[in-house]
Amino acid sequence: MRIDVLPDDALLRIFDFYVNMDRLGERKKGIEAWQSLVHVCRRWRSLVLGSLRRLNLQLFCTPETPARDTLDIWPALPLIVEGRMALSGTDNIIAALGQSNRVCQVNLELAGWQLEEVLAEMQVPFPELTELRLLSYGETLTVVPDSFLDGSAPRLRIIDLAGIPFPGLPKLLLFATHLVHLSLFNIPHSGYFSPEAIVAPLSVLSGLGRLYLEFESPQSRPDLETRSLPPPKRSILPALGLFRFKGVTEYLEELVTLIDTPQLDQMEITFFNQIDFDCPRLTQFISRTPTLRAPDKAHVQFGDRTSRVKLRYRPPQSGFHHDCLEIAISCREPDWQLSSIEQVCNSSLPPPSTVEVLYIEHRYRELVWKNDAIENALWLQLLLPFTAVKNLYLSKKFAPGIAATLQELGGSRITEVLPSLQNIFVEGLKPSGPFQENIGQFVAVRQLSDHTIAISDWHKDPAT
Hints:
By secondary structure, this protein is an alpha/beta fold. The chain has 15 helices and 18 strands. It has a domain at 295-464. It has helices spanning 8-19, 27-31, 34-38, 42-49, 67-70, 91-97, 112-121, 169-173, 195-202, 249-257, 280-287, 334-348, 373-383, 399-407, 434-448, and strands spanning 59-61, 79-84, 103-111, 131-137, 158-162, 181-187, 210-215, 235-236, 242-247, 259-260, 266-272, 297-303, 306-313, 322-330, 357-363, 391-394, 423-427, 454-458.
């Protein structure tokens, strides 16, 4: 059949497939693929331009697009304004943003002085804007004024800001009632807002599914004088499924006191290094969040810059484990890493009474551990809350020190630590050496109390 005899509806189905093809990352080429269709013949041009909404026709503007010369060639289509502006001027972007009633997406990576020019052009309503992504770099910090977008964002679904101070954001969020994704990365201290200020607008965002709140430094923390008592009634974020936070414990403690998240199934926390990681309010928050309460696997990991504990669970009718909660500490010193992660396991988490599999792993390029009495005592405290663990997996660098800790237990304490333990798996297990020497007495004494422990080699599986 010749294509020129196909009915309009059949042609539109073909056009729809064509304009939605995967263009292998060539975003501009994919979005403007429809332009090649309108040059084929008069019928196709009329059909394409008469089906603007069905085919979701859009124009793509970059710093290299001569916007003032080309935008008027086409109908008044929605505009996507996007690009890295490091090597470009702002003229074309400013010209595109001048069509404020048409701009539907803004995605720009720019220097501070460029951000200032862009913000100056965005002090009016953008009624069609659904996605806003701005990343600013360099030493110059330009504060977003309260008049940004004329204080209104009726159709915004995604806000993604990085390195940009916007203290008035909570006010804008009150009008962004369709928001589903809010990402705030590297929030400078000049853009600080209190937990109470951010929770107030979030509580009216019934569709918010993802929230990223990451401060640039530990300087951003609530004042002692303004820290609130637990509220009589918490705000509910009914659709929130993913929450990622980076900051100090005091901020998160206040924040989780103010909210309930019944659908939250993934929470990622990074704390700046500090002395005290006692987080009783976080513990309460986790305990009242259904999907965070019953992990069956735990990974304790130590790396060059962070230590972390990661809790995982297997959802019903799923063969794969899913990360539900991760708490990381930004710290380089091994002894501080062990001390901080021990505090987290004992003071920031509910008792991990459902965890039956525990991994203790290292991700160092150069590993320097002292294996002294203080370190042994910290290992002991770290292991104490894992009362249900049956299978313990140890990286080869940690196995001798942990074995030495267990070997020192005696009397009634022999079953106090890891009382349900049945198997120890050691990476690169050798027939003899420090680990075998240290673990032998512990295994023998546990055998006398009718608790058999098997020692096996750990063949790492990336899926674990």
